[in-house]
Design brief:
L-fuculose-1-phosphate Aldolase; seven-stranded mixed beta sheet; 7 helices; 222 residues
Length: 222
């Protein structure tokens, strides 16, 4: 049975909050309506952990709210832009998670210091700033874009995959930033792609992580 997209979006918001990506007003999660040039997105005046089905709006690609009169983040523009540019993307997550923001403040990509970091190997890019002109030009076919001094965006073919990738980025950013001034080596180049395939395609890590995130949100009554 198909999942109600609004319920699915709320679940993603609460699941991200359970993983520490809910640091205040401003994070947003969206889900494409495959039958229209429209997408669902959470309203601007609630943190991710506070979002309910009553806090979800639906925008067309011109930013017109076709569902209700709730305010949305000015960041809606990059959601519309990415959906227009990337037909393979069905969900987008943007947060200012503490460790993601710490990494963004270093103005560099995630370093390969853990096997899970390989999920971002050859699949992360930097944007010069947070305008869609910059994000759209930078993202290409990557799944993760880091915005200096701001935060990060992850995209996916499903909302579960985009959310799980984002939670993994928060975890790996914590490790990377903690080790920033150390001599900790990165994974050998030749090990990165085989590890990525093992973790993603064989172990289905992101799908398993999404299920875990849902359980964690339920345990915290989010």
């Amino acid at each position: 049975m198909a999942t109600d997209p609004v319920v699915e979006l709320v679940t993603a918001c609460k699941a991200l909050a359970s993983r520490g990506c809910d640091t205040g007003i401003g994070g947003h999660v969206s889900l494409r309506d495959p039958g229209r040039d429209e997408f669902w997105i959470n309203s601007f005046d609630r943190t991710l952990g506070e979002v309910t089905v009553n806090d979800v709006v639906k925008l067309d690609h011109n930013g017109i709210n076709v569902l209700n009169d709730r305010a949305v983040s000015p960041g809606w523009e990059f959601h519309a832009g990415i959906y227009n540019q990337r037909p393979d993307v069905n969900a987008i997550v943007h947060t200012h998670g503490f460790w993601i923001t710490a990494l963004a403040s270093l103005c560099r990509p995630l370093r390969m210091r853990h096997n899970l970091c390989t999920l971002f190997y050859n699949d992360q890019v930097m944007s010069p700033d947070d305008s869609f002109d910059s994000i759209g030009a930078a993202i290409g076919y990557a799944s993760t874009i880091i915005i200096p001094w701001h935060g990060a965006i992850t995209v996916g073919r499903s909302i579960g995959r985009a959310a799980a990738l984002h939670a993994t980025l928060e975890d790996m950013a914590k490790l990377d930033v903690t080790l920033d001034r150390s001599d900790a080596p990165e994974l050998p180049e030749e090990a990165r792609l085989p590890l990525r395939k093992l973790i993603d395609e064989v172990a289905c890590y992101l799908e398993q992580t999404w299920e875990l995130m849902i359980r964690q949100a339920e345990r915290h009554n989010l």
